[in-house]
Amino acid sequence: MINKLAGGLMLLGLLTTAPVQAIPVVYFDFDGDSLMDNSASFMLGDSFSVGLYASDVDSSHQGLLSWGTEIGFDSTLVSATAYTIDSRWPLAGINNGIDNGAGSIELLSSSFVGHTGTIKLADIQFETLAIGTGALSLSELFSGNLSFDGFAAADGYSYDAEVVFNNASINVSAVPIPGSLILLLSGAAGLLCFRRHSGT
């Protein structure tokens, strides 16, 4: 009885000290600090770049070896102009591309070694086209293809069933009236009011 109890306690100790695998998170970074951003605001006519990252990739499967994601956007609000895969992913997919008509970007790339921690995947450049608010979304690339692993580890493990995609929103507002023009218009309005009150 004592031996069974001791064996059970040892097993319980092993289970509670086993490392917990982190769940990878794929997200956007608008301000260049490598941290997750949920929204960003721009002016009509602006060009901007957004970083694409994967975080919380631990070493339990020897790191992230390849990744593939589809980025969705409102093509009436913004236009995608270019993308750059980060240099740690030298094996870019041959079908990578931008489809502004469909409002989507498909990106796929891999490396010779696994990467852990917070990992930059790519940069995407956009131009604003209209005033409004829209989503910038992330999803698994070729999600209907069960034989394709969008996010694969160096030891062959697939992260696809657990990876978390964090979407963001973009707000585009009108170009502000320059301060000098506001002063000029308010001065002209003041003179007009003064002329009316003076009767001339």
Describe the 3D structure.
This protein is of the alpha+beta class and 200 residues long. The chain has 2 helices and 13 strands; from the N terminus they run αβββββββββββββα. Strand 7 and strand 8 form a beta hairpin. The protein is elongated. The termini are far apart.
Q: What are its keywords?
A:
200 residues, alpha+beta, 8-stranded mixed beta sheet, 5-stranded mixed beta sheet, 2 helices, 13 strands, 18% helix
Return residue spans where pLDDT drops below 50 for at least 5 consecutive residues.
Answer: 8-16
What percentage of the residues does DSSP assign to strands (E)? 35-45%
The SS-based structural class is: alpha+beta
Q: Can you write the helix and strand succession as a string?
A: HEEEEEEEEEEEEEH
Helix count, per DSSP?
A: 2
The separation of the N and C termini measures 110 Å
**What does the average pLDDT come to?**
84
What is the general shape? elongated
DSSP summary, beta strand count: 13
Helix content range of the residues, please?
10-25%
Described by strand count, sense and barrel closure, the largest sheet is: 8 strands, mixed
Would you kindly provide a brief summary of this structure?
It contains two helices and 13 strands, in the order H-E-E-E-E-E-E-E-E-E-E-E-E-E-H. The protein has 200 residues and is an alpha+beta fold.
